[in-house]
Amino acid sequence: MEADVERPLREYQKGSREMQAMSTIQGNLVALSKELDTTQKRVDKIKSGKSAASKVADATSSAESVRKEWDSQAPYVFEQLQALDENRINHLRDALTQLQTHE
User: Fold this and answer.
1) Which of 2, 59, 68, 84 could, after both became Cys, cross-link 43 (CB 3.0–4.6 A)?
2) What is the pLDDT of residue 3?
3) Who's near 62: CB < 8 A, 6+ residues apart?
4) Coil, strand or helix: which one is 86?
């Protein structure tokens, strides 16, 4: 039972390339979300103060650029996360089937 059920569950993350790559992709998405938040706060701060129009335009342009990057990358990452979750659920279902077979 240990070889058929427990070991595959414990080693799934090590053996799955998708799982290993996902941590990098998630890290990139987190960094992008922080950058988006930072640029938006900067725009809000500049707009609330008495800044030059060019400074406001530059900050707004920077925020729009980051927003476009988020809009292009986030759907892909969330789609990959969903596919990975489906694979993990299938793996758990298979392990449960193996466990029930042994009992």
Assistant:
1) 59
2) 77
3) 39, 42, 43
4) helix
